[in-house]
Design a protein that fits this description.
Layout lengths: L5 E3 L3 H7 L12 E4 L3 H12 L4 E4 L7 H6 L2 E2 L3 H6 L3 E4 L4 H8 L10 E4 L5 H13 L3 E8 L11 E6 L1 H6 L1 H5 L3 E4 L6 H28 L5 H16 L2 H10 L9 H17 L8 H12 L9 H6 L14
Parallel strand pairs: 2-3, 2-5, 3-4, 5-6, 6-7, 8-9
Antiparallel strand pairs: 1-9, 7-8
Helix pairs in contact: 9-10, 12-13
The structure holds NADP nicotinamide-adenine-dinucleotide phosphate (NAP).
The site of NADP nicotinamide-adenine-dinucleotide phosphate (NAP) has 21 residues, from helix 2 and helix 5.
């Protein structure tokens, strides 16, 4: 799949307009935010800072108070919340929660744009898009690649997919959250990219936690060791673009580090971990993958081969690449 990924940063004029500087062609549009957990509150504050009139609703009473102090209007019910704005942003724990809140008043969504920023799967996003379309609503799905304190800063990347028309229409509100990136018309794209990026993050966390457990068994303070981890990971991440080229081209030849040499390294890592009394839950699956690569004849390939081996079951034609 070829993706053209385009960052959509607010332009200077958009920033000035959004601030209600008086030079705006139109005042910032009303927005409803449903769900006032840690993220929903951050989104609400960002919209208020940019001058949007914001109506809020949360399942449990009391959470709206802080937002009202910042200038939001608390809706008396979810029906009033939906009716208050052309743009409804939902940010709750999961899709079941989002659907459960909206479903009793679904017909009120007709002619509005529903944006779901709750975490979910591509299939859940597609089903919600179909549900919204049947009600006459535009649907945009989103993935928030940021933690609440990052919201409203350019480092906060928010991924969107679904109705491009609705994305463009409400872009000014989206740009209040950080850097907006539209991925395409398939609503499942934003959650797919979101979950894949989370996978990269969790993998990194897993390796880091295992490393801390190994040295921690020798009473090395985590804070001291972390000073070594950060530049080490930075140096290793610098190799990602080259690995990505290998994955795209199918040429995994390496003059840097082959699977067989990593296989030996993994044996030692596993033995040393056992010696330190550290559980192997996080590293054993990766060792098994390296082993499989070697066993299947890819010992001289680079580590990029592992990305292909992972998707092999879904792509039997990849067998054709195997050396005789
Ligand atoms: N926090 C982060 O760093 C972060 C980063 C990226 C994305 N996100 C995503 O943002 C979403 C919200 O996360 P959060 O950190 O704000 O979580 P949170 O602080 O735990 O808040 C959860 C929110 O969801 C509501 N909720 C949960 N189940 C519900 C249900 N069945 N019906 C109605 N409301 C329900 C809660 O309402 P009550 O107040 O009534 O319990 C609350 O408003 C999640 O999908 C999360 O993955 C979070």
């Amino acid at each position: 799949m070829e993706q053209e990924l385009q960052h959509r940063r607010p332009t200077q004029s958009q920033e000035a307009d959004a601030g209600g500087s008086g030079r705006s062609e139109a005042p910032p549009a009303p927005v409803t935010v449903v769900g006032l957990g840690k993220m929903g509150k951050a989104l609400t504050s960002a919209l208020l800072k940019q001058g949007h009139p914001v109506t809020v609703w949360n399942r449990s009473a009391g959470r709206a108070d802080e937002m009202v102090r910042q200038g939001a209007t608390a809706a008396t019910g979810i029906d009033a919340a939906i009716s208050a704005s052309p743009l409804i942003i939902v940010c709750v724990t999961d899709y079941a929660g989002a659907h459960g809140i909206l479903a009793p008043f679904g017909p009120l969504l007709a002619g509005r744009t529903l944006v779901n920023l709750s975490n979910g799967t591509p299939e859940q996003a597609r089903r919600m898009a179909e549900w919204a379309a049947a009600l006459g609503a535009d649907y945009v799905d989103g993935g928030i690649m940021a933690i609440p304190p990052m919201i409203s800063r350019p480092e906060a990347l928010i991924l969107y997919s679904g109705s491009e028309r609705a994305f463009e229409r409400h872009r000014r509100a989206f740009d209040a959250f950080g850097t907006s990136m539209y991925l395409g018309g398939d609503p499942g794209l934003a959650p797919l990219f979101d979950l894949a990026l989370l996978s990269a993050m969790y993998g990194m966390f897993g390796g880091y936690f295992h490393a801390l457990a190994m040295v921690g068994a020798d009473n090395v303070p985590a804070v001291d060791f972390t000073r070594l981890v950060i530049p080490w990971l930075h140096a290793m991440i610098a190799g990602f673009p080259r690995m990505a080229e290998s994955v795209d081209s199918g040429d995994h030849a390496t003059d840097i580090s082959s699977l067989d040499i990593n296989d030996v390294g993994f044996d030692n890592l596993i033995e040393a971990s056992r010696g330190q009394g550290v559980r192997l839950d996080l590293v054993a699956p990766l060792q098994a993958l390296v082993r499989r690569g070697v066993a299947e004849g890819y010992s001289s390939d680079g580590l990029s081969r592992l990305a292909v081996l992972l998707r092999q079951p879904a792509e039997p034609e990849a067998d054709a690449e195997k050396p005789a």
